[in-house]
């Protein structure tokens, strides 16, 4: 939908925000949700909700402004010309107007202008869980990504709750009862499709070394922080070796209480994937705060065909730390569509993004967008965004 990326102006040490947004705005799953499926039309939300602190509304506006700039149109102004009131079915009430935006004649002279995030930043810094990222200070892109997706989820759920409340009220009238009877199987309250795009599940398995008693716990994730196994690979690192290190069974240095043995014993721990997300975000742990330095080792990664099937629970879970991965696992391929690079040191650095549109890569440094023939592995690669192949 967005033909070519456009830049985002740096508002003072906000490169970590711009880099994350470039990756999200060029994610086809989010493009579909915001520009086609209208999961959170800001006009509808503003008409329905009394709470003006809605991060999802601001993100919808950023999507429209980004989309409009790349097409040479003022998408938000085009929508607001119609001055529509919100209906009781806000998911679809602005579809016609957004279709009109798609068909408006482009002004070729205005295509590709960088966008300004003043209102978006102001709203971001007011969100619970994001206030620590406020101001013109350097922050971590991975921390911002996690906090932003969670805050976006909270805002979207508040809107969904209001939509459900209005639908329930409408269902109480005989006139609309038949209409809403057909919609009983819709997504439950709290099921934000935005967060679902990035959400997967991990199983943590603890095994007692005396009685082999297993204790498991499943938890969700929206990104994976992968250590670079420097002690194992002697300078030759791949994203696959990082994943194998992350999912292998390790003997814990501390003893744990075993409810079966009823005493403290040695245990192994292993993390395996239960469910894989549509978009897999991998974070390389390059910041070593204990040593006060940045890990600059080159980690190679495939642009296409990262196979995640062998890390699923049925194939990866082992009973011994030395058990290897089964070669007969089904393939679950992922293709790279965006990366975030960090240049500089632990205390002072800069983030840039690389995004794939169609078959072409672009390197984006704040408001500057350059063509890139390919994305090459280097010591600055910090976050990798993979899309599950359809």
From TrEMBL:
Any one GO molecular function term: cysteine-type deubiquitinase activity
One example of a Gene Ontology biological process annotation: proteolysis
Major place of residence: nucleus
InterPro entries recorded: Papain-like_cys_pep_sf, Peptidase_C19_UCH, Ub_carboxyl-term_hydrolase, USP, USP_CS
GO cellular component: nucleus
Localization annotation: Nucleus
EC number of this enzyme: 3.4.19.12
Domain of life from the UniProt record: Eukaryota
Endoplasmic reticulum keyword on record: no
UniProt cross-references to PANTHER family, sorted A to Z: UBIQUITIN CARBOXYL-TERMINAL HYDROLASE, UBIQUITIN CARBOXYL-TERMINAL HYDROLASE 22
Listed name of the protein: ubiquitinyl hydrolase 1
Organism from which the protein derives: Cyclotella atomus
Lineage: Eukaryota, Sar, Stramenopiles, Ochrophyta, Bacillariophyta
């Amino acid at each position: 939908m967005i033909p070519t990326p456009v830049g985002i102006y740096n508002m003072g040490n906000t490169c970590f925000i711009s880099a994350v947004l470039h990756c999200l705005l060029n994610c086809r799953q989010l493009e579909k949700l915001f520009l086609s499926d209208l999961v959170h039309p800001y006009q509808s939300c503003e008409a329905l909700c009394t709470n003006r602190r809605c991060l999802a509304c601001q993100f919808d506006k950023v999507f429209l402004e980004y989309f409009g700039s790349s097409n040479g149109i003022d998408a938000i102004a085009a929508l607001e010309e119609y001055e529509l009131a919100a209906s009781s079915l806000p998911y679809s009430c602005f579809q016609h107007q957004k279709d009109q935006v798609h068909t408006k004649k482009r002004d070729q002279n205005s295509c590709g202008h960088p966008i300004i995030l003043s209102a978006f930043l102001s709203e971001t810094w007011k969100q619970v869980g994001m206030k620590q990222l406020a101001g013109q200070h350097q922050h971590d892109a991975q921390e911002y990504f996690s906090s932003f997706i969670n805050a976006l989820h909270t805002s979207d759920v508040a809107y969904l709750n209001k939509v459900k409340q209005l639908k329930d009220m409408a269902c109480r009238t005989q006139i609309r009862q038949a209409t809403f009877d057909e919609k009983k199987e819709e997504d439950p309250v709290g099921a934000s499709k935005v967060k679902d795009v990035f959400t997967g599940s991990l199983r943590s398995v603890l095994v007692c070394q005396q009685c082999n008693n297993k204790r498991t716990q499943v938890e969700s994730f929206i990104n994976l922080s992968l250590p670079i196994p420097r002690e194992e690979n002697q300078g030759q690192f791949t994203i696959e070796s990082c994943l194998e290190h992350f999912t292998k069974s390790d003997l814990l240095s501390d003893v744990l209480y075993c409810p079966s043995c009823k005493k403290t014993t040695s245990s192994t721990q292993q993390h395996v994937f239960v469910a894989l997300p549509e978009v897999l975000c991998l974070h390389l742990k390059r910041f070593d705060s204990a040593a006060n330095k940045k890990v600059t080792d080159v980690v190679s990664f495939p642009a296409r065909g990262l196979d995640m099937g062998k890390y699923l629970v049925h194939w990866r879970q082992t009973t011994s730390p030395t058990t290897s991965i089964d070669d007969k696992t089904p393939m679950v391929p992922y293709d790279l569509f965006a990366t975030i690079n960090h240049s500089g040191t632990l205390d002072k650095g800069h983030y840039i993004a690389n995004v794939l549109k169609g078959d072409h890569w672009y390197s984006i440094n704040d408001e500057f967008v350059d063509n890139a023939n390919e994305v090459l592995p280097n010591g600055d690669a910090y976050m990798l965004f993979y899309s599950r192949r359809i």
